[in-house]
Specification:
By secondary structure, the protein is α/β, with parallel strands linked by helices. It has 12 helices and 14 strands. The protein has helices spanning 57-74, 89-102, 118-126, 150-165, 185-198, 214-228, 241-253, 268-276, 287-302, 339-343, 350-353, 359-364, and strands spanning 30-31, 36-38, 46-51, 79-84, 106-109, 130-134, 144-148, 174-179, 203-209, 233-238, 282-284, 313-316, 322-328, 331-333. Strands 1-2-4-3-5-6-7-13-12 form a 9-stranded mixed beta sheet, with helices on both faces. Strands 9-8-10 form a 3-stranded parallel beta sheet, with helices on both faces. A two-stranded antiparallel sheet has the order 11-14. Strand 5 (106-109), helix 3 (118-126) and strand 6 (130-134) form a beta-alpha-beta unit. The radius of gyration is 21 Å and the shape is globular. The model is unreliable at 1-42 (pLDDT under 50).
Length: 368
């Protein structure tokens, strides 16, 4: 990635908007067989939002409502058609077809499988629909991409693992690496960044894909313990918090404690594990600025307006397409900065984090 390209920096405020238009109407809640939340139908001001799964907490809890709220703020006569693929690439392809039939003009999609969705995106574009890749860079002729610097995410994860290891971070220290789903291009970027941080500094003695599933990650961790021996594992790289949860349970069951375990997405359960000391770090990718940026780009495309001031970088997708991109900056979260990140940004309250079983640990961490 060209170091001279301008980064979009996030903080506690939303991404600045390039244009302002009137406030928006609200879509209804009826659902069709494709799983989409239906308004009164398609039309010239309809935007489709397709998210990949409901297992990862962020999509339903944060991305969807933030996106819908921003569209409402920007566009008085826009509607949002929503559907979740529930982890099924074939279902997401059908949802694209449903969006086309309903007459949406822009589709914002976080692809369940970035390669498999290529033909669906091509079909939509052939119908005159603009497509925005959200969080994951889908293949095909997309008009824009909104996400975080995903290589940087992996670097932050690797650096946090090394920091937690401290003096134990040596080329002989055996680290287990459980990556995300290979069908997700982000997983490869996280992996790349993590390897850049870890290679040569520790021994990545076991590396497998956890498919973004806590159960699969738990199975892989169990296999790693069998292969390497419980006493020989210095730390664990988990690509996200969901998998870290499964891994943490496996470590506990094997009597392993006090070793670093990374994560990503700043899920509430991940933050609580950090407070409790069973996870060492996560990566916070502020959902509101990302959803706001996608909504702004979608509305601009809907209105035939330029996105040049928003998508200021260019990335190449797996299909070789050059895609105007807006990349935001991720933040590493440890016990030391929970209050200054997810709490300060009102992602979670102290009360939500410090429930009964975590109350004592929160007090020790200075969160109460």
């Amino acid at each position: 990635m060209n170091a001279m390209m301008r980064r979009v920096v996030i903080g506690t405020t939303a991404v600045s908007m390039a244009l302002a238009v009137a406030a928006c109407g609200k879509a209804g809640d009826d659902k069709d067989d494709s799983g989409s939340t239906s308004s009164s139908g398609g039309g010239d001001k309809t935007i489709g939002l397709l998210l990949p799964d409901s297992v990862t907490a962020r999509y339903e809890k944060f991305d969807k409502p933030f996106f819908e709220a921003k569209v409402k703020e920007l566009c008085s006569d826009c509607k949002v058609e929503y559907a979740n693929a529930a982890g099924d690439a074939a279902k997401q392809a059908q949802q694209v077809s449903t969006m086309i039939t309903k007459g949406v003009k822009v589709i914002v999609v976080s692809a369940q499988d970035s390669a498999a969705i290529k033909s669906s995106i091509q079909t939509a574009v052939d119908k005159g629909i603009k497509v925005v890749a959200y969080d994951r860079l889908a293949q095909g002729p997309v008009s824009a991409y909104v996400s975080f610097d995903n290589v940087k995410v992996g670097q932050l994860q690797g650096e946090a693992l090394l920091a937690s290891l401290g003096a134990k971070a040596t080329p002989k220290a055996k680290v287990v690496m459980i990556n995300g789903d290979d069908a997700d291009p982000n997983a490869g970027q996280f992996k790349k960044g993590a390897h850049e941080a870890l290679d040569g500094k520790v021994d990545i003695a076991y590396e497998q894909s956890g498919l973004w599933k806590d159960t699969v990650a738990a199975e892989k961790m169990s296999a790693a313990i069998t292969q390497l021996g419980a006493k020989n594992i210095a730390g664990v790289y988990a690509a996200n918090d969901g998998m870290a949860g499964g891994i943490a349970n496996t470590l506990k069951g094997a009597g392993i404690s006090g070793i670093p375990l990374t994560g990503q997405d700043a899920e509430l359960a991940g933050i609580q594990r950090i407070v409790a000391g069973t996870q060492s770090s996560t990566v916070y990718k502020a959902f509101k600025p990302e959803a706001d940026a996608a909504a702004q780009i979608a509305v601009n495309l809907l209105d035939g307006k330029s996105i040049d001031s928003l998508a200021t970088e260019t990335l190449t997708s797996g299909s070789g397409d050059k895609v105007p991109s807006q990349l935001l900056t991720p933040v590493s979260v440890t016990k030391a900065n929970i209050a200054d990140t997810v709490v300060k940004d009102k992602l979670y309250t102290i009360a939500e984090i410090c429930t009964g079983e975590f109350a004592a640990a929160c007090k020790t961490a200075g969160l109460q």
